[in-house]
């Protein structure tokens, strides 16, 4: 590793970081250098796949501090026994790279994770030093997301929260059984303990800022986590219930899902093939139903297959739920409450809000809905409008072929 230059290290460690999905940057505070002080901003235009508080796509330098690791998690390409080329940045090199890329308008922030070297505390010290140097030595005001290590000293994790916009701790796998089998050196109890500590610190800071104007920030964009999908035997139902529990207990901003990807020289306990990427997509849709559409986790699980516990891949979970609850439909769009309008397949939050506004002035027909959605034909079996009542469709034994979208092939993100 000592013979590698910074460019070679960047090539290795940027590629190694691509498997971490939890790098969105929504929810942070506005902070910029437009008045001539400091460097960087959380509010500028960007090129990378993360999102600013107002929803625009911004750029993050997404790297690992090192891909060396003392742990031997079966599913990780950077595990101790993996035969991969290793590299390691110094804290100073990461700081210099971040500043140089920002000045060239390549990035607007940093996402930093790492393998475990020497010990959890030593690695966490190096991660914190990067954020500290950027904030204190260079007055960097861009976005920083730090992936923290649950086994590290709580004071180090607290220091990370003081410098970073968002902190995250990966729960790794949906079930404790899967974690013990595939990552025996990690503890679900320690992971959840660290997440609980972060939640308490974020809540304490919010309370302090409510009473004291100049109270310091602590992870203003909150905390997130990530689960690997398809590496163990957990069903979609298990994953949805686990994610819902994490949201409730730790006030997470996001749970990210990462489809398991087969790795070279893989352990015999791992699956031979990756799960369909559409499965990952359906889990994100389920997540949205719970967070924004008023569905309970148990209702989303009810949309899954009763025997396998898996969500259907050919239709979205909202449509699957509607087909299993035909007795709830059709819904009168001119009279139904918002909660029920949100359960009509094909209607999003913005469309429902537009319906609620428009129907204050007149009754709506199918032509009005056609202006709010891409395919009004999919909605017809589930609603009543001024000029539409689905008598024949409501009595049909099977309407799935009429409302299911045409099947399309899911492209591979990292395929050859």
Comma- or semicolon-separated keywords:
38% helix; DNA modification/repair radical SAM protein; TIM Barrel; 416 residues; iron; two-stranded antiparallel ribbon; alpha/beta; 2 domains; iron-sulfur; six-stranded parallel sheet; globular; 15 helices
Structure description:
This is DNA modification/repair radical SAM protein. InterPro entries: Aldolase_TIM, DNA_rSAM_put, Elp3/MiaA/NifB-like_rSAM, Endo/Exo/Phosphatase_dom_1, rSAM, rSAM_sf, RuvA_2-like. It comes from Sphingomonas colocasiae. Its cofactor is [4Fe-4S] cluster. Residues 59-286 form the Elp3/MiaA/NifB-like radical SAM core domain. With 416 residues, the chain is α/β, with parallel strands linked by helices. The chain has 2 domains: 6-225, TIM Barrel (Alpha-Beta Barrel); 325-403, no CATH class. Helix content is 38%, strand content 9%. The protein is built from 15 helices and 10 strands. It has helices at residues 6-16, 91-103, 120-137, 154-163, 176-182, 188-211, 236-250, 277-292, 297-302, 317-324, 338-341, 349-358, 366-370, 391-395, 400-403, and strands at residues 50-51, 57-58, 61-64, 109-113, 143-147, 166-168, 223-229, 254-259, 331-332, 383-384. The strands form 3 sheets. Strands 3-4-5-6-7-8 form a 6-stranded parallel β-sheet. Helix 7 links the parallel strand 7 and strand 8 (254-259). Helix 2 (91-103) runs parallel beside helix 3 (120-137), helix 4 packs across helix 6 and helix 7 crosses helix 8. The longest helix has 24 residues, at 188-211. It is globular. Residues 42-48 have low confidence and may be disordered.
